[in-house]
Design goal:
- The complex is a heterodimer of chains A (208) and B (758).
- Chain A is of the alpha+beta class.
- Chain A has 4 helices and 10 strands, in the order αααββββββββββα.
- In chain A, helix 2 packs antiparallel against helix 3.
- Among the domains of chain B are: 151 residues, no CATH class; 179 residues, Four Helix Bundle (Hemerythrin (Met), subunit A), CATH 1.20.120.80.
- Chain B has 25 helices and no strands.
- In chain B, helix 20 packs antiparallel against helix 24 and helix 22 runs antiparallel to helix 25.
- The chains are: A alpha+beta (208), B mainly alpha (758).
- At the A-B interface, helix 2, helix 3 and strand 7 of A face helix 3, helix 7, helix 8, helix 9 and helix 10 of B.
Chain lengths: 208, 758
């Protein structure tokens, strides 16, 4: 899954960022747990040879911890800001295909520039920037394509956008990520990626 | 006749007994919330399961969240706070013992009112513990369960606000001579900051709940219109919701600090740095709510600011965790049951905290928002860090509270099974980073089944392990081993202030003293519950509730009039508040929460209006000269109240009487004008449900008028008491009321231009 994901621009950026966080996170956890286990073991009651005293040396330690944490966070924020501007601003705006998404209890309606309207199945051409303009007809939903690591809330009265680009043909799942009533679990759609020619055929024809 | 033992528990105002009531009640709610969690996990154990239909699943998941966060975790922490904060600071009781009992009973009944929803058609509240709009509206959740849930939460907010005021005044005003701020024990520090956050975080929730209730009962448009709607609810809810995480965590972390210090036989490492971190984290908790709204469409720079503030939170918590761990260094570490839970709490917090940094990233959030990754993360904080910490506290303080000793070996077994069960339950959820939260079922094609299966196995183990807790806590009462306190006393070199009498029932603060019991807190809370059950049973229940409430309030004032009930004397150490009275300090603290409440209502109005371009000009709706007249009346009443305070200070009874009466009359004139205004507007078709201008106007001015009404009644009582010569020496209540009245005036000076002029 991850090798495919790296070919999808949004998912690729997302996973690279995730890996940075994961490496630093695991590293931090290992260091903290080592300090914890070392101290519990070394200063256990039965270890009579361990040195003991009750002086408070709490002067420098907190300053060091705070500085190191701040330094790491600075780096993480830097990488995050790079990723978020990439994931927010669609590349190749002019050649992008704009599709309206209207969420409802419980499904998705996709409306294409030529007025074509399809229920629950989003068909798009490969290698084309797709910009979705997402809203809701009733309650709060959240539109997500997990394999592409894109997601935006579908809120009545508001329009949120997201973009993605599929490098190759395939079918992927679309899910609702906000509790929207008893049908929430079944609010599943399909993303169908066709090559450009197939897509034109489908798009030109009236029905789905 | 009621058995004396029962009567004692129903009427007590003693902080220790209230503490025990909190602990027992919260454990009861843990049992309910835990059962609901098990139902949820059984449903999710295998794909395409039919154990729990979605309509029930949504109720279970929603009530599980609400009960665990609001009716279990926080109240358990406050059970310990009730019991031990006064002991730690050398106070005889909380500053306002009756109010404390009232907080407890309101808390109990609030939970019962919310849970009543399970037994009615349509079921309990079911839109998730976040109660997102507009799913929570009457259109999409027609059953009364959501209204009952909101009513329960409103009662709980009242309870929490009283507790916050009570604890802040207690800690600032009732310390004994040797307890200066620098010597205050660390658990008390954590409680102090917890209640400060509570004071600021809960009023926005209250505002949101009042608007939700108005939407559902009166047909207003706050969360059903696009101008307010989902985003307005999000802002208000998460302004409360994020700090709430720290509100539940901090009491546990305070207890963990005490436990680690005790079982290492060492002072806590870098106490001042921990307290500074605590202060920074408390402040930051109020400015990070936007990270719950990254993908709602708020603009990019806002999202980046919230990323930074959220990431910064890991600095103070990093300092805290490392300081806790470094306390062990050069200590004598004994792995008794409480210590195991405390170390478990820290370890699980490390995982919960680090994964939280992932969530803070506005980019990573796009992937993990609304998935089981988030569920795993916050359970590592809320269950891992908080519940383990609080269980540690329970084992740590159990011998102190009961005078009994539990089996340390069984306690350790409880820890180990819980720790394994917990990690089996929640660690697999990190791998479910694509699985949406709160879905009641999933297809087998997703590949999520194995992780869910393990999680459910872990949930069953974790649940069964808690039977050991029950056994450990109950068995000592049955077998009653003598020679308690060995668990407590060993290595007690660092116990500073907890040297009060060993058996709480014969402590110097004993319940048998005359004037320390009152049935009124129970009665008033019961009346409130009956009143809110009017949502189900209509006018008779409303009326009955109202009668009980009025009777209770009159009795309360009678007790005050005859000085039947005496609160504890102030402590000797109360820097920097030596010169003001307890009531005045309490009123200032309360005003802080009131500012947040009105601030939320006013901000909501501005938010809605800025999203609604066709807002009608106020001149077309309101009678501005009449409004100006009424404003003048209220300002004048402010001056007369000021005169009353001056006369009270100088002991001039007649002047005070005249000034108080004038204030009361002016307040009544203000209200009469207000009511006639409303009457005319409603006759002209401008009603709460006629549109957003009506909804916002009636809510804001109605809330204000409610404050004026309460004020006029209090003034009536003061006049009565003055006539009977009740205020010869004492003037604290007149002064604190003066602050309240000035605040009510000031709010009107904000509301008037906002609604009448611009």
């Amino acid at each position: 899954m991850q090798s495919f994901a790296l070919e999808v621009p949004t998912a690729g950026v997302w996973w690279s960022l995730f890996d940075i966080y994961l490496v630093l996170g695991v590293l931090t956890a290992v260091v903290v747990f080592s300090i914890l286990i070392y101290n519990v073991w070394k200063y256990r009651e039965k270890n009579t040879s361990a040195p003991r005293d009750n002086k408070d040396r709490g002067k420098l330690g907190p300053v060091i911890i705070a500085s190191v944490t701040l330094f790491v966070l600075f780096g993480l924020a830097y990488y995050t800001f790079g990723a978020i501007s990439y994931m927010t601003i669609p590349p190749n705006q002019n050649g992008a295909m704009q599709i309206k998404v209207t969420a409802f209890q419980w499904g998705w309606n996709f409306t294409y520039p030529n007025g074509k309207s399809v229920l629950n199945e989003l068909t798009v051409p490969a290698n084309t920037t797709i910009v979705l303009n997402i809203t809701s007809r009733d309650v709060f939903h959240s539109f997500g394509i997990p394999d592409f690591k894109v997601k935006a809330d579908a809120i009545p009265g508001r329009h949120n956008t997201l973009w993605f680009l599929a490098p190759q043909q395939g079918t992927f799942v679309i899910r609702c990520y906000e509790l929207c009533g008893v049908g929430h679990s079944y609010m599943v759609g399909t993303l169908r990626v066709l090559d450009k020619q197939q897509f034109q055929q489908w798009y030109g024809a009236g029905g789905s | 006749m009621i058995h004396p033992w029962v009567k004692r528990w129903l009427t007590t105002t003693n902080h220790k007994e209230i503490g025990i009531l909190y602990i027992v009640t919260s454990l009861y709610f843990l049992f309910i919330g835990g059962l609901l969690a098990e139902l949820v996990r059984i449903q999710l154990a295998v794909p395409e399961n039919n154990f729990l239909q979605p309509v029930y699943y949504n109720q279970a998941v929603t009530m599980h969240g609400l009960i665990m966060v609001l009716w279990f975790l926080s109240p358990l922490g406050f059970g310990f706070a009730n019991y031990f904060v006064p002991l730690q600071i050398g106070a005889k009781d909380l500053a306002f013992p009756r109010l404390n009992a009232f907080s407890y009973w309101l808390y109990l009944f609030s939970g019962l009112v919310a849970a009543t929803g399970f037994f009615i058609p349509g079921g309990a509240i079911s839109g998730g513990w976040t109660v997102y709009a507009p799913l929570s509206s009457l259109q999409y959740s027609p059953g009364a369960g959501t209204t009952l849930g909101a009513a329960g939460l409103i009662m709980l907010t009242a309870s929490v606000t009283m507790s916050s005021v009570n604890f802040i005044v207690t800690i600032l005003y009732h310390r004994s001579k040797e307890i200066t701020f620098s010597k205050m024990p660390i658990f008390t520090w954590f409680i102090l900051f917890t209640v400060i956050i509570m004071l600021f975080a809960f009023p926005p929730l209250l505002a949101a709940l009042i608007m939700l209730a108005a939407d559902r009962l009166l047909g207003t448009w706050f969360f059903t219109s696009a101008a307010g709607g989902a985003i307005l609810w999000d802002h208000l809810f998460w302004f409360f919701g994020h700090p709430e995480v720290y509100i539940v965590l901090l009491p546990a972390f305070g207890a963990v600090a005490e436990i680690i210090s005790h079982y290492s036989s060492k002072e806590i490492y870098a106490k001042n740095a921990i307290i500074l971190s605590l202060a920074i984290a408390s402040f930051l908790s109020l400015v990070v709510w936007g990270h719950h709204m990254y993908i709602t469409g708020i603009n990019l720079s806002e999202r980046e600011i919230f990323t930074v503030t959220t990431e910064l939170i890991s600095v103070p918590f990093g300092v805290m965790v490392i300081s806790y761990i470094w306390t062990l260094n050069k200590g004598t570490v004994r792995l008794a049951t409480p210590m195991l839970f405390a170390l478990g709490s820290i370890s699980l917090f490390v995982i919960g905290g680090i994964t939280g940094v992932f969530n803070s990233s506005v980019a990573l959030d796009i992937g993990i928002r609304g998935t089981y990754w988030v569920v795993a993360h916050f359970h590592y904080v809320m269950v891992g860090a908080t519940l383990f910490g609080l269980f540690g506290a329970l084992y740590y303080w159990y011998p102190k509270i009961t005078g009994l000793e539990y089996s340390d070996r069984a306690g350790k077994l409880h820890f180990i099974t819980s720790f394994i069960g917990f990690n089996l339950l929640y660690f697999p959820m990190f791998f479910l980073y694509d699985m949406p939260r709160r879905i009641s079922t999933y297809s087998s094609a997703t590949g999520w089944a194995p992780y869910n299966y393990v999680a459910t196995a872990g949930a069953l183990l974790f649940g069964i392990a808690q039977l050991l807790l029950v056994l450990n806590l109950v068995r000592p009462f049955v077998s009653f081993p003598r020679g308690a306190y060995t668990l407590w006393e060993r290595g007690a070199g660092n116990i500073r202030v907890m040297t009060h009498a060993s058996n709480p029932t014969v402590n110097e603060n004993t319940e048998s003293e005359v004037g320390h019991t009152t049935p009124l807190p129970l009665l008033l809370s019961f009346g409130t519950a009956v009143f809110f059950l009017g949502i189900l049973f209509g006018i008779p229940a409303f009326a009955l509730g109202l009668i009980i409430l009025i009777y209770g309030i009159v009795r309360w004032f009678k007790d005050d009039f005859y000085s039947r009930f005496k609160g504890p004397e102030p402590g000797e150490e109360r820097w920097p508040f030596e010169s003001i009275s307890k009531e005045t300090l309490g009123m200032w603290v309360f005003i802080a929460s009131e500012i947040m409440l009105f601030g939320s209502v006013i901000s909501s109005y501005i938010f809605i209006r800025s999203n609604f371009p066709q807002w009608p000009s106020p001149a077309a709706i309101h009678d501005i000269p009449l409004g100006l007249f009424n404003t003048t009346v209220l300002i004048t009443s402010g001056f007369t109240m000021f005169l009353a305070m001056i006369n009270a200070r100088e002991g001039k009874q007649v002047g005070m009487l005249v000034a108080l009466t004038s204030t009361m009359l002016l307040g009544s004139v203000f209200l009469s004008v207000k009511f006639s205004e409303w009457y005319n507007l409603i006759s002209n078709g401008f009603t709460p449900s006629s549109g957003l201008p009506g909804s916002t106007f009636y809510l804001a001015t109605g809330l204000h008028a409610g404050h004026v009404i309460a004020g006029v009644f209090l003034l009536g009582y003061f006049v009565f008491k003055t006539l009977k010569g009740g205020y010869v020496k004492e003037r604290g209540s007149i002064e604190s009321f003066g602050i309240y009245w000035a605040f009510v005036d000031a709010i009107w000076l904000v509301l008037f231009p906002l609604f009448y002029l611009v």
